[in-house]
């Protein structure tokens, strides 16, 4: 259920410095199994700068979220990844760490897999030899996971606890010291 939306003008764009063209748009939503979140998008109409994030409206402890993908129906499970969340799929040897421009998003399992697949396709396109074969093999495995032909675990490590996998089968636990160092 959507709670409320807002649009805030900001004096100047932090990137291009223009006046009157920078805004922060947001909305607060309730996510089942997770609670209230705030999605924000900061954008400049002049230079095109955009920065998105998703955050919990209440403080949370560092947490790991884990979900076993076992069927094609699991592609619909809602995923909240904050800008500080690290995504891991151990069966694919995939770890996606946030960079300085990392953005949070609300998606589903299929959307997360598609983002990873797009990155692999880009990297594979320019690769050669074993790296190209390995990239293609990972892409094929993602397709099998999406069709429910292969199982995999989706893990999100979040030092601020602002991510979630919104399904009753998802496991949530505190981050270990080793995991916290990865974030």
Summarize the structure in words:
- This protein has 183 residues and is an alpha+beta fold.
- It has 2 domains: 1-58, N-terminal domain of TfIIb (Single Sheet), CATH 2.20.25; 59-183, Sandwich (Jelly Rolls).
- Helix content is 22%, strand content 42%.
- The chain has 3 helices and 12 strands.
- The protein has a 5-stranded antiparallel beta sheet with strand order 8-7-10-5-12.
- A hairpin with a 5-residue loop joins strand 3 and strand 4 (50-56).
- Helix 1 runs antiparallel to helix 2.
- 24% of the residues are buried.
- The model has no long low-confidence stretch (mean pLDDT 91).
Class from secondary-structure proportions? alpha+beta
Question: Strand fraction band?
Answer: 35-45%
- Rounded to the nearest angstrom, the distance between the terminal CA atoms is 31 Å
Order of helices and strands: EEEEEEEEEHHEEEH
User: In total, how many beta strands?
Assistant: 12
Largest sheet: 5 strands, antiparallel
Global Rg: 18 Å
Mean pLDDT: 91
Supply the number of structural domains.
2
**Range of helix content:** 10-25%
Give a short overview:
This protein has 183 residues and is α+β, with helices and mostly antiparallel strands. Helices cover 22% and strands 42% of the residues. It is built from three helices and twelve strands; from the N terminus they run E-E-E-E-E-E-E-E-E-H-H-E-E-E-H.
């Amino acid at each position: 259920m959507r709670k409320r939306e807002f649009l805030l003008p900001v004096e100047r764009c932090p990137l291009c410095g223009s006046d009157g063209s920078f805004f922060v748009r947001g909305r607060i939503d309730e996510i089942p199994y997770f609670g209230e979140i705030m999605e924000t998008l900061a954008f400049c109409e002049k230079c095109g700068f955009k920065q998105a994030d998703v955050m919990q409206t209440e403080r949370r402890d560092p947490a790991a979220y884990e979900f076993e993908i076992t069927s094609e129906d699991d592609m619909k499970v809602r995923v909240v990844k904050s800008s500080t969340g690290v995504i891991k799929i151990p069966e694919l040897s995939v770890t996606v760490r946030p960079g300085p421009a990392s953005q949070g998003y609300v998606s589903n399992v299929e959307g997360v897999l598609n983002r990873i697949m797009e990155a692999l396709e880009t990297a594979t396109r320019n690769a050669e030899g074993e790296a190209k074969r390995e990239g293609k093999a990972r892409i094929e495995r993602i397709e099998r996971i999406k069709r429910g032909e292969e199982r995999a675990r989706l893990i999100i490590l979040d030092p601020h606890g602002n991510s979630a996998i919104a399904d009753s089968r998802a496991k949530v636990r505190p981050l270990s010291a080793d995991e916290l160092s990865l974030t």
